[in-house]
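Per reviewer request, we include the raw input and output of the structure prediction for the construct analysed in the revised manuscript.
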Amino acid sequence: MPVSVTEHPLPEEWVGEEPVTVEPEPLLDRTQRTVEDVVESTAQTVDNLFGSADVEEEATVTRGRLSVGAQWDQRDGLRERIRLKARFGLPALNKRTSLLLGRGDVNDFVDGSADDNIDTLPDRFNDFEDEDWLLGIGYSRDGKLRRGWSFGAGVRMATPLEPFVRATYRWHKAFGDNWLWRVEPRLFVQNQRGAGISIQNVLDHVFNDTWLLRSYSIVVAEEEVEGISWTTKLVAYQNLSKKDAISYAAYSTGETDYEVPVRDYGFELRYRRQISREWLFIELLTYVNWPRDFLIEERERNLGVGIEFEMQFGEWPGRPPLKQD
């Protein structure tokens, strides 16, 4: 005998409900999550060596980025590069200590030349053969490594090992609403370079919501080199929208007491855009420079182009952590 629906009604929660399908996580998101998980596990391992933190206070990525790029120019042809830089807070050490894991030029990291203020594509690709993995620990009283004194020690994870120690003082002063001056002297000792000192100077001027002008310079003196190396750069940043911007730069670099005091100078045009996700960027570059390393060389014009994809993870200004529970 047929059963009446009114006599045996369906449960209320079933009425009008369609089957739920779980969409697979996109490849981009899986990649970003995997990178963050791997580097986070490294931080947790180090943190446990100094005493386990509470579960809710596990070491997490403060900030990190993975970049993959390629560059071509008339002088050196095609080159490619993969870079990683991640910083973690270590709760077991009172959150004043951070772990740094990265791949890049260890010398530039130690003396401060590899700074975000000047870390554009042409600088990133210099001396690409010398890139190695780096593991280091830094300490700062405020726990943020942004103001006052900070100290660090680490090692290049290659044969032979290249240990280093450094001490950095960060100072800044604002003038009105439009000017910001930052000075960063640094003392360092590196196994093959001996003792050294560097001074970084950055002056920013905000014209309006669209334009920022930055003057950057750094000088480096070290025990094993007679002269003083220097780099200076003037950059104008133009904000096009919330997702893209352009920078225009002129730079020069050299070394005193060297056979060629000015080793390179040139101009760069760089376009950067957020794509697909808030943590994924593409950077396009074109430039012209006039490098010269030795007197026997002729200083000739060198044209180049570059492209880079950058994936960020961890906590960045203006957005919450990317990793979801």
